[in-house]
Amino acid sequence: MKKKLPVLLAAVFLSVLTLIGCDGEWLDEFDDAEFIEETEDESGDDINNENSENGQDHGSEDEVTDIEPVEIGSDAHSATVMIYMNGSDLESKAGEASMDLSEMVDSGIGENVNVLVQTMGTKKWQDYDISSRSSQIYRVNKGELELVKDDLGQLDCTKSSTLSDFIDFGKKNYPADRYMLIFWDHGGGPVYGFGYDEWQPDTESLTLDEIQEALRNNSDIGFDIIGMDCCIMANLETCYVLEPFCKYAVLSEDFESGLGWSYKEWMKLLEENPGVSTPLLGKKIIDGMISANENDDEVGGSSTMILVNEKAVPDLVKKWTEYAYKNSDSLLGLNYSKLHMARGRGFFDSFFDSWEEDDSSVTMDNYYVSDMLSIVESVGKEDEATTDLRKALKACAAYFGHTSDKNELTGLAVSLPYGDRDFYDQLVDVYSKCGFDKKYIDWLEGFVSAEGSGDYCDYSSFEDSWCGWQTYEQGWNSCEPDEDFEDWEYDYEEKLWYLYEDGNVYLYDDESDTMFFYDEYEDEIYYYDEEDDEWYIVEE
To answer: What is the structure's pLDDT at 166?
Structure first.
């Protein structure tokens, strides 16, 4: 019977499809924020605090870095931009990676700036004759996409070594006065990280500790900007991990639409002036994305993006923990993630290749993402800890943009594991490896079982697990059916629940909310019609 299961699951899944018919502006709270630029040379020779000896240490949490606002460029004459492009289903289903590659090609970049793109992680590239069977490295050069390395094999983009090797290739073969690193794909927040690779199990991802490891392996290179062209990665934890390795980070707290970043204009600016001020370049990236989403009614959606001054992050971590400990009772008493909506792309749009109007019905509690400034506003207590946290947030926000719709996210988030033991266990593993303070990690456990935690969310059960990118839109704690299915097992490849009982097999597809039964003797598959309370044969 078990030998028949893969074929059976595929058949049932096909039957299921038959049944179901198959404007940039300053942050209001930070309205007087200025561009923050280092007084050091922008060549990238030293991006760390003076007390950092190996390029891996975070700034001291006991001191506030005094940063003077200036608007200067540098004398850089060259730059190398490394794009870690994991095409995933976004490319195979919708061609979104190819569209962004076209924008890069159209920018004309290539004489003064090297743009290197490592292609991976998708079973079908829609354009440019890119191989889906082997990872490759391309260079964008004056209107062409040139293949520069073709013997990489099928790389796993969710491995730290894959990222590390790509950075190493870029710095050795294309040295420059300044560097940027961009991650392209899905984002899963600070615990589940980056990257759905179609050639790997869909539970795999490149977590923050693995990104940190890759950057440490290349600590002799400093990035002016590390950007993530993906969803929900603008959070305190990501910024903490990136801080020793870059001056600025460009991140989205919300979901990104299918448009992603707009590459043409900012790459054109960098090509014309490789020494352009880093904050001005970051502003160009943000303004381009916001404008594209405002002007595209078909694919565009609500968007936010922030330029984070990484030098201010250590102080933000310090001020947040002081605030959190002091307001522990208030924070544990309410799920602040539920107060705010996620208004970006629905991920099943790309999986099923259909773009539907976003109904903005997803709250950020599905992902345990809590907007930091909104927490401060909701708690409503004005004391020294609150004032200090506001100042620290302001120092981090070098620039922030959002579309003109009512977007309730303000730039930076923090992850709080409301009522979910499994999510917290994953958090402990990642955060411990990243070097987060043990006291803070232990404090976060309070959100798992705090008094009143049953009111955190509307779900019937919290003890659910991360079951892969395919269920991403539904949130981490919606992977399993309700308690009636506690003995069932999940087939990650076929995305179906199944149960062996008395020689029979039952299957449940949570996408169509349909139960199936396989009759081995009659070799028939039945589905259950809840309204009729009857079992019916699935017709081919």
So the answer is: 98
3-state helix, strand, coil in the chain (%, to 5): 35, 20, 45
Taking the C-alpha atoms of residue 328 and residue 321, their distance in angstroms, rounded to an integer, is 10
Residue 281, amino acid = L
**Domain assignment of residue 320, yes or no:** yes
Q: Is residue 527 within a helix (H) or strand (E), and if so which, with residue range?
A: strand 524-529
Alpha-carbon span 519 to 330, nearest angstrom? 54
Looking at the domain assignment, is residue 66 inside a domain?
A: no
Q: Is residue 477 part of a domain?
A: no
224 and 124 assigned to the same domain: yes
Residue 42, in any domain of the structure: no
Structure tokens at 35: 């561009």
**Domain extent at residue 525:** 2-22+484-537
pLDDT digits over 145-155, tens only?
Answer: 999 999 899 99
d(CA 206, CA 208): 7
**Helix (H/G/I), strand (E/B), else coil: 389:** helix
Work out the percent of the chain whose per-residue pLDDT is above 90: 52
**Residue % of the chain over a pLDDT of 70:** 72
End-to-end C-alpha distance for the chain, whole angstroms: 21
* 406 in the same domain as 263: yes
* More confident of the two residues 5 and 366: 366
Based on the domain organization, do 401 and 522 belong to the same domain? no
8 A C-beta contact, residue 264 and residue 284 = no
Burial class (CB in 10 A: 0-12, 13-18, 19+), 488: middle
The counts of H helices and E strands in the chain are 17, 19
Q: Which residues, including other chains, have CB under 8 Å from residue 427's CB and lie 6 or more apart?
A: 190, 191, 415, 417, 441, 444
501 Cβ neighbours under 8 A, 6+ residues apart: none
* Strands (E) located in 259-386: 304-309, 341-342, 362-363, 369-371
Please enumerate in sequence order all residues whose Cβ is within 8 A of that of 204, keeping only pairs 6 or more positions apart, or say none.
156, 158, 197
Same domain assignment for residues 13 and 126: no
Q: Are residues 316 and 398 in the same domain?
A: yes
What number of CA atoms fall less than 13 Å from residue 35's CA on the CB side? 15
Q: Which of 364, 389, 415 is the last residue of a domain?
A: 415
Q: Which of 394, 415, 436 is the last residue of a domain?
A: 415
> What is the value of pTM for the model shown?
0.75
